[in-house]
């Protein structure tokens, strides 16, 4: 088992018993206790997930119960791990694992178009009432710009919009693209304050429908349009492109 081999390269000071999802036991390191701590894995996917991305997947597995600590507490187990952190990086095996982790992270985090749509839908296509609880009235979801400590959230979000519009250095009749346009507030404000035409694109059906409604309420349907499309599928040309917060996805 590769995970057990890796852990035995890493753990030299103290140790524990690893029981994999097939109920096979492995002695990791040199356990000092008469009854060593047991790390029991209940999901076969953890055999490789913990190898490539332990800092994320161990926490998730412990939380959802697919990784359990026996004969001790989580603190006891982490104490053993912390005593041995860094050992794998001082040998060739550790360097190889480090490169493999990087490759694994790249492949699993690559944001294909379909994955992007699923991510956005999972995050935004939920109750509108939820976002109204903590966002400003324009539903600005990215960081606000507080000029001073007395600014309200509403003021700070308006500051941000004004700052972005100024940085765009817009000229009349230019075409502007807003990638990841959210609930449409930036695109609508650009249209209100300039003579530019604006296209906002999003992958969220909720945001798309909300944005169209807000543009109509502002009588800007002829100046602002919204599309339910991935930016990689857009073939139009624009004079300015703005994207606020999209890279977080």
Automatic annotation (TrEMBL):
The keyword Repeat is assigned to this record: no
Signal peptide limits: none
InterPro entries assigned: CFA/CMAS (IPR050723), CMAS (IPR003333), SAM-dependent_MTases_sf (IPR029063)
Biological processes per GO annotation: lipid biosynthetic process; methylation
Molecular function, one GO term: methyltransferase activity
Keywords: Lipid metabolism, Methyltransferase, S-adenosyl-L-methionine, Transferase
Family: Belongs to the CFA/CMAS family.
Name of the protein described by the UniProt record: Methyltransferase domain-containing protein
